[in-house]
Design brief:
Blueprint lengths: L27 H8 L3 H10 L5 E4 L2 E4 L1 H14 L1
Length: 79
Amino acid sequence: MPKQVPPKPSGSVAERRIRPLPAAYLEPEDIARIFQVPLETVYQWRRKHTGPPGFRVGRHVRYHPDAVAQWAQNQEEAA
């Protein structure tokens, strides 16, 4: 007897557009180098929720390159 797959509920996570995984995620040092700011500035942005969106992998902070590019574009438009 073949295994039946239940239908996906409407509005489920599976229906949302999921960003593909990049070849590599950026680290805080990469963000500091890209924007030519001190590393401490990147950490302040994170504490104040004003910088590019990041996420934790264990105790390490990582940034999706597309999210950083979108944040930078938003900053340019707001200026």
